[in-house]
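Aim 2 progress update. The chain analyzed this quarter is reproduced below.
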Amino acid sequence: MPEVQIFQKCIAAVRTNDDFLTSLASDAGIIFDLSPDIFSLSKKVKACHESNKKLFIHLDLATGIGKDKSGILFAKKAGVDGIISTRVSIIKLARELRLFTVQRFFIVDSQSLETTIESVKSSKPDMIEIMPGVVPKVVRRIKSEIAIPVIAGGIIETESEVESMLVSGASAVSTGCKKLWNMK
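Predicted structure tokens:
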């Protein structure tokens, strides 16, 4: 399995081409593309790798790329460094194809927290992303039961929120807040 290490506190989460270009010039070493498409994928992979960055695509949100084994193979052949998905089946397939995986979870209540823990034990992603990422108590609970890196994502807009999540056990945060992408 390819290894990915997080060296910065913030992962650039991008939706637009302008945000993607800004992220290439940032200190963020990992870019989460939340709106990948079949036509620009190879170009984005090349730009990321030339900028010494890793590109993860959110397969659930991709256009023109199947949410199946063929779609994952396409992404792998295009050179992506990892797949993001909320779906256990996608995570399992991507792992079988030796791609790095980030499984994304939305924690809205205590039941979704329990479901998340059970799902991670089943799918065995390389990392998980917890949303919204401003709930330190949730990150602490998950870290106490699961020994994989946790990324906190969503609604993180200040350096103090980043620091709070890191203190609670998150390995990094993913954010669309450009001013945080250069945070050391």
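Helices lie at 17-24, 41-50, 69-78, 88-96, 110-123, 136-145, 159-167. The first strand starts at residue 10 and ends at 14. These observations will guide the mutagenesis experiments scheduled for the next reporting period.
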